[in-house]
Specification:
The complex is a heterodimer.
Chain A (H helix, E strand, L loop, with lengths): L15 H32 L4 H5 L14 H6 L11 H37 L3 E2 L2 E2 H10 L5 H15 L5 H25 L3 H9 L4 H30 L2 H6 L7 H10 L5 H21 L1 H8 L6
Antiparallel strand pairs in A: 1-2
Helix pairs in contact in A: 1-12, 4-7, 4-9, 7-9, 8-9, 9-13, 11-12
Chain B lengths: L4 H4 L12 H29 L11 H22 L1 H31 L1 E2 L9 E2 L3 H7 L2 H32 L5 H13 L2 H12 L6 H8 L11 H30 L2 H9 L4 H28 L4 H6 L11 H10 L4 H33 L1
Antiparallel strand pairs in B: 1-2
The chains are: A mainly alpha, B mainly alpha.
């Protein structure tokens, strides 16, 4: 999505006073909402450096209101003075963190591979399986989006136990792939639709096979779309809680489950929780800021012609 | 989405006559062997599990492997017997086989579980009890309450839509630092709902010294308990959920606004329309298709709402904030009631499918009338 400079509003000015008023209103509203978006994040990050007294007295600004301290991060084993010491909490945290990384990257990759292939097929060729045509197959894939996790959760719990996939990362990867597949197909269909079919026709004339044309010609063009779909899928998988809470217990537990289990306990250490929450959201916040363009591209696919 | 399929159809397809008979036989042979193998493993495993034979595997995992091998054989069969037609089918097959295995089978299995009396914590195991769960569900006030809550939660989408539209208009106005504001407004969507429920629900809105509670006291609300009486608790949950998901609609609406042609807006202004008139008579009607897409997608996501409720209130006080998903989650987690929980989930699935189908029909008529 490109940012267009809109010069039409300048000519709308009726008087200088009205112009100033509208500017004040617009920037006021923007800053107000920016505050609403940022304050919880700011609060969490600063709280991870507070001691109990600073929390209860509602101190907000570091160095002026309170003296920051590595307290929260020390309890996670991630502060400068404890990073080289042995810490069971840190080991636990890193294990959960790696589980989250592996499941979300694994599921997103798998979904991108099979989803892109399916989307390409659906856009370019006409299928007929029994009485199912392209539209029906597309609808079948996209309708999975409606399926609430709670419907699949219990059957999967039983099935996974029978198959021996309960509390494994592979089990989670398969489920997450299923969860993001409709979204990937939705985005990639839009991508492939925007590629002119003449490119592939030329490739076929030059002697490439269908699959050769797909890998050598279409894939490179559709790569930005794939990145967009991948990142959106990553975000959804990383934040997923419901399946992870039901289907994992010790080995494959992910970060959200760890965060949730900590909040459940009474007498929470605020600084420790804040540090944990910060660590849990940091990777995605960074991705969101750095790759915002792709995220927006993924989210707006197909909605605007 | 425009279909380009018809143009692609013009490509010459490989006439079936060019494929040698031997290759076809190989394909059929391969598929036959794979199918027999899959069936054989399933039968062996069923016999073993029902203790009618002593040969078998501890878990059903070999059946999964057999299914994967069968899928590969199916692909090979397509290519061997149908040539280029088969190669085309190969694009679709992995996703299709995957989704069918992951959805159809568990859902059917789910319908069976729904008809059983099965409590994981009791020793009696699973036994078929027909429609008992269904009758129990009809008389369950908590489930009805959860369904009613879902109606409120879905209606809250309209408020979210208004805010998201306002934000999209702000971002589309002529402003400096647009990219900064866009990134900041997008951030809440990135954050895991579980972390958000601690950050906002459990610390910012904390009764004693959360900043939100302090602010509420300052503004004159003497007893700012966000999660203790039913209505306030519901609204708090809605606010939490809205905070994370408003950016989603905002981004879609913003894309719609940026795709709108400038000429129409110019024309409206030349005709002397005020900003207010321009919005209601030009911008809003033109944005209707995008708006409908955004709202429907948001409703679909809203129907899955669970994480925040599970982690912040666990459905409390007294089930007042329960969504259907969080209620079923606790039915399973706390009471291990698999049979009954699955019946609730299946009933919810039927309700959702009917509702969303109606919604899509309604929306398509609505959008067409305007255009």
């Amino acid at each position: 999505m490109s940012v267009q400079t809109t010069d039409y509003s300048i000519s709308e000015i009726r008087s200088p006073a009205a112009f100033v008023a509208s500017r004040v209103f617009i920037y006021g509203a923007l800053l107000f909402w920016a505050f609403i978006c940022l304050f919880p994040i700011y609060w969490t990050i600063t709280t991870s450096f507070k001691s109990a007294v600073d929390v209860t007295q509602g101190h907000l600004i570091p160095f002026i209101d309170f003296q920051p301290d590595w307290k929260g991060w020390r309890s996670l084993g991630l502060s400068p003075d404890s990073i080289f010491q042995i810490s069971t909490v840190r080991d636990e945290f890193l294990k959960r963190f790696m589980n989250s990384v592996i499941t979300s990257v694994g599921a997103s990759s798998l979904a991108i591979v099979i989803g892109s292939l399916a989307a390409y097929g659906l856009v370019r060729y006409r299928y007929k399986f029994a009485w199912f045509k392209n539209e029906d197959i597309s609808f079948f894939f996209l309708s999975q989006l409606i399926l609430p996790p709670v419907v699949l959760a219990l059957p999967f719990l039983v099935l996974y136990r029978e198959v021996g996939l309960l509390d494994t990362r592979i089990g989670l990867i398969l489920l997450y792939t299923l969860m993001v597949l409709p979204i990937v197909i939705w985005i990639m269909r839009d991508q492939f639709n925007s590629i002119p079919v003449e490119l592939e026709e030329a490739a076929l004339v030059d002697g490439l096979s269908i699959w050769g044309a797909f890998f050598r010609i279409v894939m490179p063009i559709a790569l930005p779309g794939m990145v967009a779909a991948f990142i959106l899928a990553m975000v959804l998988c990383w934040n997923e809680y419901f399946f992870a809470a039901l289907l994992t217990s010790t080995d494959a537990k992910t970060i959200p489950v760890m965060v949730a289990s900590q909040t459940g306990s009474q007498g929470i250490n605020w600084w420790a929780m804040a540090a944990l929450a910060t660590a849990a959201i940091a990777p995605l916040a960074v991705i969101g800021i750095a790759l915002e363009r792709y995220l927006i591209m993924g989210m707006t696919a197909g909605s605007v012609k | 989405m425009a279909e380009q399929t018809s143009t692609a159809n013009a490509w010459p397809s490989n006439p079936a006559g060019l494929i040698p008979a031997g290759r076809k036989r190989l394909g059929w042979g391969l598929l036959g062997v794979a199918t027999l193998g899959l069936l054989a493993i399933i039968v062996v495993q069923i016999l073993y599990k029902t203790e009618m034979s002593t040969v078998g595997f501890d878990t059903w995992r070999p059946v999964v492997y057999a299914y994967i091998l069968w899928g590969i054989a199916l692909g090979a069969w397509q290519v061997l017997t149908r040539g280029e037609e088969g190669q085309r089918a190969l694009f679709l097959l992995p996703a299709l086989l995957f989704t069918i295995a992951m959805v159809i089978f568990p859902t059917l299995f789910g319908f069976y579980i729904a008809l059983t009396d099965w409590n994981l914590s009791s020793f009696s195991g699973r036994k078929f009890n027909g429609l008992d769960n269904f009758w129990q569900m009809l008389g369950d006030p908590y489930y009805r309450n959860a369904l009613l809550n879902m109606v409120f939660y879905v209606l809250a989408v309209l408020v979210e839509y208004v805010i998201a539209f306002g934000l999209a208009l702000l971002l589309n106005a002529q402003i400096r630092a647009r990219k900064f504001f866009r990134v900041v407004f997008l951030l809440p969507l990135m954050l895991s709902p579980v972390a958000v429920s601690w950050m906002v629900g459990k610390s910012l809105m904390e009764y004693r010294f959360g900043p939100a509670a302090t602010l509420a006291r300052y503004l004159g609300w003497e007893n700012p308990a966000f999660f203790s009486d039913p209505i306030t608790a519901r609204i708090s949950i809605m606010i939490l959920d809205a905070w994370t998901f408003i950016p989603f609609m905002m981004i879609m609406l913003l894309a719609g606004l940026q795709a709108m042609s400038r000429e129409v807006l110019e024309a409206a202004r030349v005709d002397g329309a005020t900003a207010w008139q321009t919005f209601w008579q030009v911008t809003f009607p033109l944005m209707l298709p995008v708006s409908v897409t955004a709202v429907i997608l948001r409703i679909i996501f809203k129907l899955k709402l669970a994480d925040i409720i599970i982690t912040v209130t666990s459905g409390g006080p007294g089930g007042a904030t329960d969504s259907v998903s969080s209620f079923i989650y606790r039915e399973y987690r706390d009471r291990s009631n698999v049979g009954y929980g699955t019946m609730l989930a299946m009933a919810y699935l039927v309700i959702i499918v009917v509702f969303v189908t109606w919604l899509l029909k309604f929306a398509s008529r609505f959008v067409r009338n305007v255009n």
